[in-house]
Amino acid sequence: MRFLDSLSKRQRRTFVRIVIALAIFAVVALLPLDSLLSQPYALWAEFVLFLIPYLIAGYDVLWKAARNIGHGQIFDENFLMSVATLGAFALVFFPDAEAHMAEGAAVMLFYQVGELFQDYAVGKSRKSIADMMDIAPEFATVMREGQQQEVDPYDVSVGETIVVKPGERVPLDGLILDGATQLDTAALTGESVPRTAKAGDRINSGCINLTGAITVQVEKPYSESTVQRILELVENASEKKARTESFITRFARYYTPIVVGIAAALAILPPLVLGQSWSDWIERGLIFLVVSCPCALVISVPLTFFGGIGAASKVGILVKGSNYLEVLSQVDTVVFDKTGTLTNGTFNVVAIHANEGVSPSDVLQFAAHAEAFSNHPIALSVREAYQGAIDESIVSQVQEQSGKGVRAMVEERLVLVGNHALMEQEQVPFQACELAGTVLHVALDGAYLGHIVIADVLKGDARQAVLQLQSAGVKRTVMLTGDRAEVAEAVAAEVGINQTFAELLPEHKVQQVESLLAAQLPGAKLAFVGDGINDAPVLTRADVGIAMGAMGSDAAIEAADVVLMDDRPSHIATAITLARKTMRIAWQNIIFALGVKIAILILAAVGIATMWLAVFGDVGVCVLAILNAMRALRVKQVHKG
Ligand code: ADP
Ligand code: MG
After folding, report:
1. Cα(225) to centroid of ligand 2, in Å?
2. pLDDT digits (tens, 9 = 90+) for 49-62
3. pLDDT above 70: residue 495
4. SS3 of the chain: helix, strand, coil, percent, to 5
5. How many CA atoms within 13 Å lie on the side-chain side of 572?
6. Residue 368 pLDDT exceeds 90
7. N or C: which end of the chain has fewer CB within 10 A?
8. Residue 414 C-alpha to ligand 1 middle, in angstroms?
9. What is the C-alpha to C-alpha distance for residues 555 and 161, in angstroms, rounded to an integer?
10. Rounded mean pLDDT of 444-458?
11. Contact, 598 vs 251, CB < 8 A?
12. pLDDT in tens, 319-348
């Protein structure tokens, strides 16, 4: 039996116990005791016989209840079940009462079936997330003194060379020195199409090398690798709880004692005050006790959020806590950073306009040297365009001015590379450029050398991302950028963004987001999406900060609440859709469970509900709610070309 195999040893023992108890229960229920024995012997025989399956199924519940009372934890579900079932058996001592031994045994049996199922379901979702998160490499093959050596990835230092053979998991982040291969990145990004990688490409730990052997120069210690970062994010995610989730926990703390209190009042007051039959009202009180168990809520709601986070990470969206799922589901404004978020951040040089008497190659050479130490996408592209070697030893006193450019000494001469704001600040007269594109002005010792015009490429799914957000019900899309207004307008028009704010310094981006936040309708949330280069403060300021994880800076991944592992802006809409689905399931469970329980409580109070209905109200609702919660874990795998 596949089902039995999937159970743990402990679960299998409980399962066998329940089956045996159920079989005995069925035999006892079918015995024609009334015709075999005369009263009251038939009744006592029934009592003793039902006690057997009851104890087989529930001895551990009784034991836990007794132990927990010793610890002062009275209102736990073991206690409630014990009192309710023992009470049902005890009704036999009331001469005018009907026998309820069968119900007592049945409540315990079904309660145990429900517990087993719950244990199984929770274990299964944990396992499926753990499987997906099974991205940790077991070893790294490092080259030392010309020999390959298998070592713990923790023992490899930055700068060492490792070999990754086909079929192996890439153990560390680095740069491919040699070889070409296909990589399976599904564990990191959910992307099912293999990616090609060759010498000169960067590679992330956690992917699986499919076809060719490669040698990789390690660029980060294992503790800072992609694998470690993902594992940490997912492990910490359960600590940040959604408001809905903590509301349920708090609610359960009050719900149970209140219902137990009413149960006691129901059982005692009417007989005592109005002289009604004890057995009748005790039975109603017992039904209350069975229904007072909040397990359908306290298990299913956290399980739903857990499933939602798991589903998101399956497609490469890391959500740092269920509170962010809740916020994401309410997002109506999405604010984008331009460079690196909507665009690739790899600029091509469109033109170099040199001043009279200056050669274009000098302009590029000074620019590339001044940018030698910058991580800005512009700097990387300028260095790429300048094909010569960069002598870092002649560059000193580098000052990077966020949103403006860089200022550096190159061979004892002051070089400025940046936009018009930088030139104005340094009082260098410059020439405007009529070409569309980002313009990098270059000045040497206060004299203008000319400018380099560069253009960025839109990400393939940028337009689709905005369209999907609109169809997901996001009302407003905004773009913030430090780039020129012309470039900003052109990009916005192409991707269909509603509103743009250009030529912003990083601090202005924060102010802009703050004023957008102030204008939000109550309950509507604002998401900011950035790559973290110059915008980490904005990521923290927004209701929910979404960062590009693959190329984004470490600061962004730290500051963000949600990380998109494959940098695709279209995943923002996916994240919002998943978040809404999770919230929907959580609320379905809350309303369903409370609705059924309240209905049964009312029916029990007026004497219509039976113990059997109460069992459904507890165990049945719990099982249904868990089944519903498990839907949150399901997600369509994305297929991208
Ligand atoms: P975005 O808001 O589009 O992400 P940034 O805030 O990072 O852009 O940069 C805004 C502008 O500042 C750039 O368009 C560029 O003109 C200038 N700039 C920033 N960093 C640099 C740099 N390292 N070199 C040259 N120019 C830079
Ligand atoms: Mg940026």
Report:
1. 23
2. 999 999 999 999 99
3. yes
4. 55, 20, 30
5. 37
6. yes
7. C
8. 19
9. 26
10. 92
11. no
12. 988 999 999 999 999 999 998 899 988 888
pLDDT digits (tens, 9 = 90+) for 240-299: 888 888 888 888 888 888 888 999 999 899 888 888 888 888 888 988 888 888 878 888
| Ligand 1 atom at shortest distance from the alpha carbon of 374 | 23
Any idea what DSSP says for residue 458? Answer: B
Could you say which ligand is closest to the alpha carbon of residue 506? Answer: 1
Point out the ligand 1 atom lying closest to the alpha carbon of residue 531: 4
Residue type, 409: M
Residues with Cβ within 8 Å of 188's Cβ and at least 6 positions away in sequence, in order, are 135, 204, 206, 207, 226, 230, 316, 565, 566
Q: Among 335, 404, 508, which is best to mutate for testing ligand 1, by the most ligand atoms less than 8 A from CB? A: 404
Closest atom, ligand 1, to C-alpha of 340 = 4
Candidate of 363, 364, 483, 510 to mutate for ligand 1, largest count of ligand atoms within 8 Å of Cβ:
483
Query: Which protein residues are within 6 Å of ligand 1, measured from CB?
Result: 337-339, 371, 374, 376, 378-379, 400, 403-406, 417-419, 438, 440, 481-483, 533-534
Nearest Cα residue to 526 out of 570, 481, 495, 480:
480
Tell me how far the alpha carbon of residue 366 lies from the centroid of ligand 2, in angstroms: 23
Task: Say if residues 341 and 530 touch (Cβ distance below 8 Å).
Answer: yes
Output the CA 481–ligand 2 centroid distance in Å.
7
Please name which ligand lies nearest the alpha carbon of 455.
1
Ligand 1 centroid, distance to 504 Cα (angstroms): 10
Active site residues: 337
Residue 641's pLDDT band, with cuts at 50, 70 and 90, is: very low
For 228-292, give the DSSP string. HHHHHHHHHHTTS--HHHHHHHHHHHHHHHHHHHHHHHHHHHHHHHH---HHHHHHHHHHHHHHT
Nearest ligand to the C-alpha atom of residue 439? 1
The model's pTM is 0.83
Q: Could you report the per-residue pLDDT of 156-190, keeping only the tens digit for each?
A: 999 999 999 998 999 999 999 999 999 988 777 76
Q: How far is it between the farthest Cα atoms of the chain? A: 122
